[in-house]
Protein: Glutathione S-transferase family protein
Amino acid sequence: MSAPFTLYTHAGPGPNPIKVAIVLEYLGLSYTTIPLKFGEGKGTVKDPEYTAKINPNGRVPALIDHGNDDLVVFESGAILQYLAEKEWDMQYDQTGNLSGRTPSERAQINQWLSWQISGLGPYQGQLAWFVLFHEQTHGEKPNGSVITRYQAEVERLRTVLDEHLGQAEGGYVAAGRVTIADFAILPWLKVSVLVGEKLRPLGEYRALKGYVDRLEGMEGVRGAYERLGVAL
Ligand SMILES: N[C@@H](CCC(=O)N[C@@H](CS)C(=O)NCC(=O)O)C(=O)O
Structure:
């Protein structure tokens, strides 16, 4: 029997698909992966076949749940919530641990999930683009003030997270246990090494390095990185 899920991933270290692989691994759900390249043309995130049938936004991740009439979901936050809520409502786990067992827990988890998706991800993503890809794409060095702006915002966001983790119950961002919010944040902290000295090393913060180490020690996390071929 083929795997119940198909996960569209990045043929590289893109952090957003890794979040979904972590949750699938954590829940012990089997999946096949289809790695797509950045750019345009066949086999890329902008392949018209992919944007027509899977993700009109031309990005990864996207997930197909073959056990639910081949439901297609794109946007990592929506996918994490879908898997966690399906787990809560249906057969996958029934503990509600990942998504929150009460409206209050869900609000706390979703505020940190939203913080990652609307803050850390986009700002760090733009910083990485200007540092790593702008010159090769446009043939000129990026404007320094653009780098400074994104750098400052990512540092500000990391400091917010660091201060929160310093006093958060259990050392996780919400509900005193690991949730989809932690699994969304981890790959972004890890991938930040790609911009080198543009961001402070995680070890210079009070809590970030310990947080990453704790999450990395989890079997589901290790399994996801291994499965997607991204160095842990
Ligand atoms: N908000 C989206 C962002 C997805 C995203 O930007 N994914 C990156 C890979 S990590 C991508 O597909 N980039 C391709 C591109 O920018 O063309 C999500 O959370 O799923």
Remarks:
- DSSP finds eight helices and four strands in the chain.
- The longest strand covers residues 5-10.
- The first helix runs from residue 15 to 26.
